[in-house]
Amino acid sequence: MRVFLRKSLLLAGAAMVGGAPALAAEAAGPAESGAVEAAIVVTGSRIAKAGFEAPTPTTVVDATALNAAPQPTVAQYLNQLPALSGSTSPRTAGNGVGGGTQGMNSLNLRGLGLSRTLVLLDNRRVVGSATTGAVDLNLLPTTLLQRVDVVTGGASAAWGSDAVAGVVNLVLDKHFSGLKGNIQKGISTYGDGGELRAELAGGHAFAEGRGHILASVSYSSSDSIDRVDSRPWYVGTKLISNPAYAAGNGQPKLLVADHVNSPTGTYGGLITTGPLAGTQFLPGSVPAPFNFGTVGVPVSGLGTPGLSTTAYSGTQHSINGTPNDLGAANQVSASTKVFSTFLRGSFDVTDNINLFGEFIYGKSIADSLSVPYFTMVPNGSPLTISRSNAYLPAATATAMDNAGVSSFTLGRLNMDLGEAAPHNERELYRYLVGADIKLGGSWNAHLYYEHQLSRILNEVRNDQLRSAFALAVDAVQVTPANVGSSGLALGSIVCRSSLGAPTNGCVPFNVFGPQNVTAAQRAYLVGTARQRISMTEDVASASVGGDLFNLPAGAVTLAAGAEYRRESHSADADAQSQRNITDTGPGTGNWWVGNYKPSSGGFTVKEGFAEVLVPLLKDSAIGRKLDFNGAARVTHYSTSGTVTTWKAGLTWDIAGGLKLRGVQSRDIRAPNLGDYYLGGSATSQTVIDGPNGNVSVLRIQSGNTNLVPEVASTTTLGAVYQPTFLRGFSIAVDYFRIKIDGAIATPAPQYVVDRCRDGSIPAMCSLLVRNSSGTLTTVLVQPLNYKTELMSGVDVEASYRFRLGKGMVSLRSLWTYTGEHKLIDNGVVDSLLGEVGQGNGPVKLRGFNSVSYDSESLALSLRHRFIGQGVIDAAWTSADINNNTVSAISYFDMSATAKVRSGGVNFEVFASVDNMFNAAPPRAPGILGTTNTTIGTAAATYDLIGRYFRAGVRFKM
Predict the structure, then answer these.
(1) Global pTM?
(2) Which domain range does residue 692 map to?
């Protein structure tokens, strides 16, 4: 590892493959730029002033850099940057069920959470694609993308709530004239996961340049990869309990093991209790012995060898043996179809007033598959099978009689009913009108109003109804002794419940062996859980900017304004989803997954902000320039009251190309619609109520309108060096520290009970309901402001551009070292640093390097992505696990572009390959690995698909 790290750092130092902070990323073309410096807004500040560099670190990625590394979406390129970790994509959201994130591309700066990264489009907010506020970048128009600004520091004073980890601002080329397009296709080295992307954009000036219109349209699609065991790296890696462990014997409690199966259920059913334990059922309801594998010890009479008696978190596993690994059924990636269109018109009604309007429509459709419905421990309740079950094989019935047992439990993976199939549709409507006004001198005003609508359909198709399944498997034969007045045909097989309610519609189901499910059985046992969500966001904004007065070092510049924002939502749910698990009677109970609940609510936000640039020194004895940049924002929420954010920073241009910069800021993340108004749901759960022991309670989960904004204190200190003796070279090093107080999290019921009983968080007692005798009956579960999160580290970004022959060589390197990531809960510190296995945040070291050559006829690019060593759990030692290390990995990507001009049209034919050496993801079987259903690595961190090829054509005229 150390040797490899040294080599990686040498590559970074030699290649310096990166764009200077707050500057353009890779070369815009082979020619040297001689353009006059213009006043533009780079997202780290609202100050628009030529030559001004904000003290907040900002990485700028331009369209040329994006084209050099063809990806199906802009988000998938951005997610390769070291500062982005744990983002959501079709490759990471496909395995979740019911959460509505399938197919989304959402950004997560520093791994601090989607809700702490603010996404802007041309400096304006975008309505969320989920009630969590997460923005799906798939829906945004990127065909006309000019650049992406990634601000890796607190920016709430400039842009408002959610900019705790930073801001990602997509900036469109609003002055494009001409016509351009792109079409590309891709396929994996395994012949699956095909994708298509097609784009067309045009712009035209009219009325002697006073007016301008823009339009773009894009379509993309990607095929699903349905099973993770289609990849050779998948070997069923999971965490299991060490059968050799005993207190004090020096053995670790846990083992990282491959080829792990579940000895508690099979696709045709497995008897798990009593003298018949270890009997499985093959096709045709044929009983046969189950192979428990070669490692482990027996549990509850399940056979020898088998599994551990002290399985972690109550889980149970076996090695090798009969293959029944649920994790193998997970998807690698979801299928997606995305359409987006953009229209913009602007007109100079006078020399000083420009009016504009925009419209965006985007739609995304995603389909994915979950693991099959299962009834077994530890993830579900096994079935209780009675001796009177009509489908019981004769040999098994005889064995039960001989053993003197009347029932047994059966674990089953119900693949014959198929997998639950999440289907998600997201639509974005965005209407915008505004005006840019020149007020005279350096002063300008900007006005706009936007209305945004997000429509979301979340479905889980082929969802199993638990109560119906429980009734269907309890099948009996109608006899003179039980027919009663039901009128059912003697000798027929019916649900036991139908004897007393012959018209209840129950359709019996044979659980012994895999079945050919009939249409009647499917209609009774499965259906669709459904939720429709409508979210709106209205924003009215007015701002001004210009020079206030002059100081000896230059003009004092101000940007100030006010905004009004209204966010609201409404969500409905199908009737079955709204029935609680505590309901009783035939046909009641919940879906297996996706039990949505209706909700509605909204809030308003009123804000005033100001930012100032004060030049303190110029051409002095201590440096060329010293600037102060400060900002403040006062925000009033209708739900939580008033909060103030601010920043104060210095930029010191010393001499010889050396600059120092530093910023201290106070930032916020306000509760989102989901935090406030999550629809209530009720389930049964057992908790330990102190001396009262185990108590069955009603767990009621809902939103919390008493939440207040999270408050973050952010520090960044850094240096930028652009030596005069080496033109084109730049390097920046920035230290960052983010501390979030009052972090919003949802405590588990047992946590609520424990913190009330020990008195450490008295407010938890208000979430407990007891009856008149003092017995705990209900635990209210809702998000609370009760945690502190702390992260610190160092960002390094370097670049070097120089001419070589008729082209330009661009070298770029970006690295992020995270030295600290902690979650503090009631005084208890939990380190999350590098917890890849738990999915809790970034590894210590990530890097992105590239070398590119660009000439009039040819462009070449080689890229290196490095993900450093991580751990499964940062708190574990050798006493807990045999191997806590998650190995480092490197990916290499390459692309080539041939440029041709014909008939006044510029054509580019390009091809690329990602993960050239088909690197397999490292083993990272975290806590979730103990549930039998996970894949043994971290989908949000590593490439699951493998080597991937793309080719396409671009044109511009």
Answers:
(1) 0.89
(2) 672-706+747-781
